[in-house]
Design brief:
single chain; 207 residues; alpha+beta; Phosphorylase Kinase, domain 1; Transferase(Phosphotransferase), domain 1; five-stranded antiparallel beta sheet; three-stranded antiparallel beta sheet; 6 helices; 10 strands; 45% helix; globular
């Protein structure tokens, strides 16, 4: 069995492996040696369980996410489908304008489906979306949570706005197109979410 490491960060290691004859991705939370072992084990198990629950709930909400195959709470390992596609980050700037607009609208609709079920992704960037089979698949719910608050939904979208500004600044209409899709699907008051985003932008300016 080969284990190709895709990413290693401070919190987790992501690697390609095999499970029951399928190519899979395994996300392993890394132990923190500065914490007491019993606290570390409890935190790893809790965060692993919460992330897997969010992925399951996102799928039930109609959002494309990797299929979960196994969740090991003691080891802090989530084994899931290896979605073979391209990151939105890597292709967005090269798409023709109509395709880019359609993709952004589709992203907005998916975020609205999450928010309709009070799922906060926590790290919506174009690195955490994969285009495969004509769908946008959302990955890495490690910073996710559940919240009914407009503030949390505004922050979620503001993270994406900043990702567009830093990585895709030559296409300033991207976030507008995302929000166009969001408004089409969000069952709450999208204008109030937009006000929250504007408030967050203003707070950032006056820090």
């Amino acid at each position: 069995m080969t284990h190709q490491i895709l990413y290693r960060g401070a919190e987790a290691e992501i690697r390609v492996s095999t499970h029951l004859g399928k190519d899979v991705v395994q996300k392993s939370r890394l132990p923190k040696h500065y914490r007491l072992p019993e606290i570390d084990h409890t935190l790893i198990a809790y965060r692993t369980r919460e992330e897997s629950k969010l992925i399951t709930e996102a799928r039930a909400a109609g959002v494309s996410v990797p299929t979960l195959y196994d969740v090991d709470l003691l080891g802090g390992v989530i084994t899931m489908e290896y979605v073979k596609g391209r990151r939105v980050k890597d292709i967005l700037n090269t798409l023709p304008e109509p395709e880019r607009k359609n993709l952004c609208i589709l992203i907005g609709k998916s975020i609205a489906l999450l928010h309709n079920h009070d799922i906060i992704h926590g790290d919506i960037t174009t690195s955490n979306m994969i285009i495969a089979d004509g769908r946008v698949t959302f990955i890495d719910f490690g910073l996710g949570s559940k919240s009914i608050e407009l503030e949390a939904k505004g922050v979620d979208l503001h993270v994406l706005m900043e990702a567009f500004e830093s990585t895709h600044s030559q296409h300033p209409s991207c976030f507008h197109d995302v929000f166009e899709g969001y408004k089409q699907v969000f069952t709450g008051d999208a204008d109030e979410v937009l006000k929250k985003i504007e408030e967050i932008v203003q707070r950032g300016r006056y820090r």
